[in-house]
Write a structure and sequence with these properties.
heterotrimer; A mainly alpha (99); B mainly alpha (496); C mainly alpha (663); C: mainly alpha; 2 strands; 3% strand
């Protein structure tokens, strides 16, 4: 299959992720959308790694997966804490940074 | 080495103060007072070793750091221009500390620490000969004064302190740019080196002059950059006002002498008429605005604008009489206005007001206070035989014959300021001391205590001393001014 | 510090600093110990200090008889900066010693008088603690006056010049809590100080000009070189002398700056006598006489001086005619007489000016002190009357001549000395004033016909208002209870009066026609024109004075004022003109309208719209601009995660577009 197919899929996934982050209110869903964007990026990395026969792209993907795992741990912990405090994870209620 | 000890000696007091417990208020006051008195002693020691004809005395030059590959030095030195400022500083700080003895009851420790840091900062400003070092000390004075006004000030202290800092900062940033430009172009930050290599930045002289002048003009203050001054003075505690008026304003005028005149003589000659006009506006305008004030402290604050106008007029007369008179007048203003603020503070401690309408007839109730205040006011009005006259006369006669200004009109118009000074100062005397006692609460006022007399008497003695025999002061000033003016005169020759 | 003496002079000259230091000693003693010493001792010490000064002046007079060219006696350096080299040094020559003698002689007598006067006045004003302060200020005045007359350079002269102004300020407002509204005295002092300071502005400019023209302020360096400098800078001498004249109009109360002197009568009477009649106000005449060389080089300035003096002499005399306050009449008379002296200087008759200065010091001090004796006895009578009748005190103005009348019998000594003073002032031969005034009028006759007429007219008015005053005060019947209860003052007050009266009678001898002592004496210091006694002029002025007194008698003597409220006969015939003159031609109001009011408005405009509104407005405006911008930008920070993400995305998109377009 041509590389462009993979890249198109990656782009679609990324846009879906962006839209999810922008439009959804539930923090958990936003979180999942973020993961979708990560994976879109991962897909692009491995596609180019395959295209140019280089390992660097694949190594990046491993890095991203490791960091994403850590991020998920911290993010979910935060979300639990927020839920305990506020009783919801609706991000529209989390505006205490308003200037 | 003498100068390093002198500059940093107040910090010894700070160290001791840090160790004291917060409730040991009197111990703290004594520590601060003794430290400042010892500093005064040290400055007399420096004076005893000082040679007026020897240019920069007791210089100490140590490598410090590199900025954009240009060496910055820890460079202190003293000459005829700075020695009087140093003496004035060390002389007035103990008086200011003594004046705050009862007035400051909250957070005494912090107050005194800031005061001593301020002293170090000001001594550094007057002694530093490296531009970066000068800038560091210059900014160092800002922080303690910000807190002195902001914490121990009057009702509008926050507004006043922020205004003070913002005004000063905006000027000094321009100066910082100019300092960096000079250092990078000339490869040195040392004032004497730069003086010797003026051709390296001759092209940008006027711009550099303006950048330095911006910082100093705000500090002096020159009309129309003066509006921070009445607010800061009125809101500051008495001791803060004394330091602000008597010493910090002098930093501006001193800066003009040390940097603008010395480094940019040609630009100084060209800018002199403009500066003189601004100075004269300051004299007449300050006097007129002072005349309309209803608050004693505001009146004194605006009188500073007028007096510093005389100083600037003298400096930009650019001849011996004018510049030397200007330097002496800086001392005079420090003494007289310092004393005025001191005495206004004394009456404020008693009555908790500074409104003229609450006073009247005080001479009858507190004759010692009134008599001394009248002497101080007359010295501020430039009465012959007291200090203000010698400086003003020298300035005016210098400006009158100044070749750089080129017209006697400058001095002629400025001389009307002498009349206006009498107008607003006599109004002050009348409203405070003459007439019947209109406010019954004032009938029970107490006259000066021994501590208060101890603060004011030294100032009055100096007022008479400079009025009757100012020659020792001129002996210190004259040689340094002569050297400075040689530069300016050669520059004027080039221009004309 | 202390300058060593230079030439070989008579060591007697070296005592000259004592004229300053003896009164200073008096001040120190009174200041440090006065509280414990009591009133008599304070007054005695102060009088002795001035008397000592007088003795020193006599010693100097003696020394000058052998060395009449005089010496400059340096005391110590003052300051040196650039071309300025100023020292505290005294000039002992015939001119300065004449001034010292006159000032100290009159000063001593007035100090003695004040011992008694201030004792009563302090009780009357209700604050005896100020007795000591009074004598300290008086001695301070003598110091300043001595510095003024003995200065060897213009700057030291200026010190004395301003110093006497300060003492005048302090002493006019001595009872600073009295007067109309409790503040009028203080305001009179302020007015005096500021008005004279306006003049001092001119003097300062003159000093600047002198310095840059001559390179020095020492008399010895200036006057001999006037011709040479005047040749190089024509017009300069005119500028110097006219600016100096401005100083003179302030200090010597000439048009247009005379307005402070009448108000200065708010001071205690010894002050009016010493400062505002006999000595300080003559400083301007002394200054011009001292600077004669400058004026001789500027004939146009001399002309101006002459006109200023002559017009002032007439103008003030007119105002004096319509005054009711006994001291105000004398005050305007002083202005008028000073006008004579100034005119004399303008006429080139400096000796006549000095002569009149000295005799005027005697007789005007006499008149003021006598009026003080009258005022005091009325005040005393007012208080006694209040106690005696048991009713509350009827407060009348003890200085208003309408409240007097018939005092001739009650206060015989005062009456006789007052009469001597008035006749001397009117220029009746052979009293002192006749000779001195006559010399001025004769000089005018030689020079300028119009000036002659003006001065003779002023002389006529002088005799008239003095006649009016004598008749109103001493003749007729007592118009108030206080006047009927008045008694002669104590010897401490009357003895100085008698001495001054004797001096007024024989004072003409110091420059007696044909004898001309003063002229030959001053010749060593200034240029003197031999004055000749002109019999016709003397007869004219004498007969004019006699006619004036006769007219005064016709108006006020034949039918004296009946009641203290009755109208002045002149007011009846002159109506509105009299009121206008009585109100001093409304010059004060005019000045207020022209200068003081506008300045206050201007200052207020500066203080509020300009300073607080505009300049501070710009500063605060910049601050507000920053905070407005901040609060506008703050809206971007709404706290919603999604909008942050949106802006991130938008940013990315923009960057991407940029990258794509660039390629």
């Amino acid at each position: 299959m041509p590389t462009s197919f993979f890249l198109a899929l990656s782009a679609i996934m990324f846009v879906l992720g962006i839209l999810g982050v922008l439009l959804r209110r539930n923090a958990l869903v936003i979180f999942m959308s973020l993961e979708l964007m990560f994976n879109a990026a991962n897909l692009a990395f491995v596609t180019f790694a395959n295209q140019y026969q280089l390992l660097t792209g694949q190594i990046f993907v491993f890095f991203i997966m490791a960091v994403a795992a850590a991020e998920v741990a911290v993010g979910l912990a935060l979300m639990v804490a927020i839920f305990r405090n506020k009783g919801s994870v609706d991000i529209d209620q989390l505006n205490s940074l308003k200037g | 080495m003498e100068l390093v000890i002198l500059t940093f000696f107040p910090l010894v007091g700070v160290l001791i103060l840090v160790l004291l417990a917060p409730q040991q208020k009197n111990a703290m006051r004594y520590v601060a007072l003794i430290t400042s008195l010892l500093t005064f002693g040290l400055s007399l020691w420096v004076l005893s070793k000082f040679n007026p004809a020897g240019g920069i005395n007791m210089a100490i030059e140590l490598p410090w750091l590199r900025l954009a590959n240009v060496p910055v030095e820890f460079y202190l030195g003293i000459d005829g221009i700075s020695i009087l400022m140093v003496l004035l500083t060390t002389f007035l700080i103990p008086i200011a500390i003594l004046s705050s003895w009862n007035a400051i009851q909250e957070q005494v420790k912090g107050f005194l620490i800031f005061f001593l840091i301020l002293e170090t900062g000001m001594l550094g400003v007057f002694l530093a000969l490296d531009l970066v070092l000068f800038y560091v000390f210059w900014e160092l004075t800002l922080i303690p004064m910000y807190f002195l006004i902001g914490i121990w000030g009057g009702e509008r202290r926050i507004y006043a302190s922020i205004k003070f800092v913002l005004f000063t900062m905006s000027g000094s940033l321009l100066m910082l740019l100019a300092i960096l430009f000079l250092g990078i172009n000339a490869g040195s930050f040392s004032q004497p080196t730069l003086m010797a290599n003026r051709q390296l930045f001759a092209g940008a002289e006027m711009l550099l002059f303006i950048a330095f002048a911006a910082a100093f003009a705000i500090k002096v203050p020159i009309f129309p950059l003066h509006t921070w001054l009445p607010d800061a003075h009125v809101e500051a505690p008495t001791s803060g006002s004394i330091v602000l008026a008597a010493l910090m304003l002098k930093m501006g005028a001193y800066g003009f002498l040390r940097f603008n005149l010395a480094l940019f003589p040609e630009a100084s000659v060209r800018a002199a008429p403009v500066m003189a006009i601004l100075a004269i506006i300051g004299i007449l305008y300050g006097a007129s605005v002072a005349f309309m004030q209803k608050d004693v402290k505001k009146l004194v604050a605006y009188s500073s604008v007028a007096h510093l106008g005389f100083v600037m007029l003298g400096i930009f007369a650019l001849n011996q009489e004018g510049v030397a008179g200007g330097i002496l007048q800086m001392v005079n203003h420090g003494i007289s206005t310092g004393a005025l603020f001191l005495m206004v503070g004394m009456i404020y401690e008693r009555t908790h007001t500074r409104e003229f309408s609450k006073f009247g007839g005080l001479w009858k109730v507190i004759p010692v206070y009134s008599g001394l205040m009248i002497v101080v006011t007359l010295s501020s009005a430039g009465l012959p035989g007291l200090n203000g006259f010698v400086g003003e006369f020298s300035i005016l006669i210098g400006a009158f014959g100044s070749k750089v200004l080129g017209s006697p009109w400058f001095a002629g118009v400025a001389t009307t300021g002498v009349v206006l000074a009498a107008v607003y100062l006599l109004k002050m005397i009348e409203k405070m001391f003459l007439g019947p006692v209109t406010n019954e609460a004032n009938l029970s006022l107490k006259d000066l205590s021994a501590r208060e007399l101890a603060t004011i008497i030294p100032l009055v003695v100096v007022i008479f001393w400079i009025g009757i025999y100012p020659q020792p002061f001129f002996n210190l000033i004259n040689p340094a001014v002569e050297q400075l003016l040689q530069l300016v005169q050669s520059a004027a020759m080039v221009l004309h | 510090m202390f300058l060593s003496e230079t030439t070989s002079m008579d060591p007697l000259f070296l005592v000259v600093p004592l004229v300053v230091f003896l009164p200073l000693l008096g001040i120190l003693v009174n200041w440090l110990f006065g509280k414990r010493l009591g009133e008599k001792a304070i007054g005695t010490i102060a009088s002795l200090a001035v008397g000592g000064s007088f003795v020193v002046s006599l010693i100097l007079l003696f020394a000058l008889r052998t060395d009449p060219q005089g010496f400059s006696v340096p005391l110590m350096q003052w300051f040196t900066v650039g071309g300025l080299d100023i020292s505290w040094s005294f000039r002992v020559d015939t001119l300065s010693v004449v001034m010292m003698l006159a000032v100290n002689l009159v000063g001593t007598l007035i100090h003695i008088y004040a011992i008694g006067y201030m004792h009563e006045d302090a009780i009357h004003q209700g604050d005896p603690t100020r007795y000591r302060r009074f004598f300290i200020f008086m001695n301070l005045f003598i110091i300043a006056m001595m510095i003024l007359v003995s200065a060897d350079n213009f700057l030291m002269l200026f010190v004395g010049w301003e110093g006497v102004g300060l003492c005048s300020y302090l002493l006019i407002g001595f009872w600073f809590d009295k007067g109309e509204g409790g503040i009028a005295n203080a305001q009179a002092g302020k007015k005096a100080f500021i008005t004279t300071r306006i003049g001092d502005f001119g003097l300062l400019i003159a000093i600047f000009l002198i310095f840059w023209a001559f390179g020095s302020l020492n008399f010895g360096d200036i006057f001999p070189r006037v011709g040479e400098v005047a040749a190089n800078h024509p017009g300069l001498m005119l500028a110097i002398t006219l600016f100096m004249l401005m100083g003179v109009t302030g200090k010597s109360a000439q048009i247009p700056l005379y307005v402070w002197l009448p108000d200065a009568m708010a001071g205690p009477t010894p002050v009016s006598a010493l400062i505002h009649a006999a000595t300080m106000v003559t400083a301007g005449v002394y200054l011009m006489t001292r600077s004669q060389a400058l004026y001789l080089a500027a004939p146009a300035a001399q002309n101006v001086v002459m006109w200023v003096g002559a017009i002032t002499a007439l103008f003030a005399a007119i105002i004096a005619v319509a005054q009711f306050d006994i001291k105000k009449v004398l005050a305007y008379s002083t202005i008028s007489q000073l006008g004579y002296m100034v005119a004399a200087v303008g006429l080139g008759a400096e000796t006549a000016a000095m002569f009149h200065l000295v005799t005027h010091a005697f007789f005007k001090a006499l008149l003021f002190l006598s009026s003080g004796s009258i005022i005091l006895s009325l005040e005393r009578a007012m208080e006694e009357g209040a106690q005696g009748s048991g009713s509350h005190a009827t407060n009348i103005d003890p200085q208003d001549m309408r409240n007097m009348g018939g005092l001739r019998k009650k206060m015989p000594t005062t009456f006789w000395v007052y009469l001597v003073g008035a006749l001397t002032l009117s220029g009746i031969a052979p009293l002192a004033g006749f000779f001195s005034k006559d010399e001025i009028i004769a000089a005018a006759n030689n020079t300028n016909g119009i000036i002659f007429v003006v001065l003779v007219a002023a002389a006529f008015l002088t005799a008239f208002y003095m006649g009016r005053q004598i008749l109103m005060v001493f003749f007729g019947k007592a118009r108030t209870k206080a006047a009927s209860l008045a008694k002669e003052s104590a010897p401490l007050i009357t003895v100085p009066l008698i001495i001054l009266a004797l001096l007024s009678i024989v004072g003409g001898a110091i420059n007696f026609p044909g004898w001309l002592n003063l002229e030959h004496w001053l010749e060593h210091t200034i240029k003197v024109h031999e004055s000749t006694f002109q019999l016709p002029v003397a007869l004219i002025s004498l007969s004019i004075a006699l006619i004036a007194i006769l007219i005064a008698w016709l108006i006020y003597g034949r039918k004296p004022l009946a009641e203290s409220t009755s109208k002045d006969p002149l007011a009846r015939s002159l109506g509105g003109v009299f009121t206008l003159v009585n109100q001093k031609f409304k010059v004060d109001e005019l000045y207020h309208f022209l200068f003081i009011g506008p300045y206050e408005k201007l200052a207020d405009f500066f203080a509020h719209p300009v300073d607080q509104g505009f300049i501070d407005g710009i500063a605060n405006g910049l601050g507000n601009l920053a905070s407005e911008t901040g609060s506008w930008l703050r809206k971007l920070q709404n706290g919603f995660v999604r909008s942050y993400v949106l802006s991130i995305v938008a940013g990315i998109v923009i960057i991407l577009i940029y990258l794509l377009v660039r390629v």
